[in-house]
Specification:
Blueprint lengths: L2 H9 L4 E5 L27 H6 L1 H20 L4 H11 L5 E4 L5 H5 L6 E3 L2 E8 L5 E3 H9 L14 E5 L8 H12 L3 E5 L10 H8 L3 E5 L12 E3 L3 H10 L3
Parallel strand pairs: 1-2, 1-7, 2-3, 7-8, 8-9
Antiparallel strand pairs: 4-5, 4-6
Helix pairs in contact: 1-9, 3-6, 4-9, 7-8
Bound molecules: nicotinamide-adenine-dinucleotide (NAD).
């Protein structure tokens, strides 16, 4: 199907669920994981098991976090984020499922209640023992002041960015709401995800299995391109606004 066909398919849909990955935020200056200049080109992964069991793992995790935070905090939403706001304004976006952790969708104007964060958020840190939360600004200030892996001031437990690390359990309530949204939409619009991280990538498959159209916008091929009804290659900030404007 050509781009015009995809535009018409989106234009004809009345319940569109968005599904986004790190690629929608690269044009805001936030690197993704898997591109050549992505996070993985520069950092090693500290998984959840290492974080909870090793002080040096926590120090390394927080070092990476503190280095990445200013760019994430200061990033501004881009045209790709605003394309989803436009779908919301049109009354056609009941939910936006995201793997992203920097809250750019909420900052672009989507109501927080309609954004389902599968991998949590990096804007806060949470105590793994008592659940107390502090802002990432505060956590990073404490690191700058010499705490290399900050601990909870309420109970002494381990403070961890409120994201879901590799090896850490997914938030079951958010997964269930995402699954339900995917199964009741008539089109799932995936943008900027390599669609290789599970179980997140199972969501677009579930939408398709429930009868929705699946449209994928990504710079590179994904493993789900073969089952998609439309695949558009290109820079999200360029192609997505044009695709949703036609639907008005
Ligand atoms: P990913 O890094 O695996 O894939 C990103 C995809 O987007 C790639 O296929 C890449 O080719 C494509 N892409 C990058 N920029 C693009 C652009 N401007 N236009 C079109 N396509 C573009 O990311 P993922 O699928 O989200 O999964 C990785 C994990 O990384 C997720 O769990 C997420 O939580 C985490 N992550 C989040 C952020 C963020 O919050 N912004 C940043 C890095 C990683």
């Amino acid at each position: 199907m050509d781009e015009q066909g995809v535009r018409e398919m989106i234009g004809g849909a009345s319940r569109i669920v968005g599904f986004t990955g790190a690629g929608i935020s690269t044009e805001s200056g936030v690197p993704d994981f898997r591109s050549p200049d992505g996070v993985w080109a520069r950092n090693r992964t500290v998984d959840f098991q290492e974080f909870v069991s090793s002080e040096s793992g926590r120090v390394e995790y927080w070092r990476q976090k503190a280095a990445a935070w200013p760019a994430m905090r200061d990033a501004k939403p881009n045209a790709g984020h605003y394309a989803f706001v436009e779908l919301h304004r049109q009354g056609r976006l009941p939910a936006l499922i995201t793997q992203n952790i920097e809250r750019l969708h909420q900052r672009s104007g989507l109501p927080a209640a309609s954004v389902l964060e599968l991998h949590g958020t990096t804007t806060e840190a949470v105590c793994l023992t008592c659940g107390d939360r502090i802002t990432s600004d505060e956590a990073c200030r404490r690191i700058e002041a010499g705490e290399r892996a900050p601990r909870c001031r309420a109970c002494g437990g381990l403070l961890k960015p409120a994201t879901i690390s590799f090896g850490q359990a997914m938030p079951l309530d958010v997964m269930a709401r995402a699954q339900a949204a995917a199964e009741t939409c008539d089109l799932l619009l995936a943008a900027g995800s390599s669609l290789v991280v599970e179980p997140a990538a199972s969501i677009p498959r579930a939408a398709k299995a429930a009868g929705a159209h699946l449209v994928i916008v990504n710079r590179e091929p994904t493993p789900l391109d073969g089952i998609a009804d439309g695949v558009v290659r290109g820079e999200i900030g360029v192609v997505l606004p044009a695709m949703v404007a036609a639907g008005g």
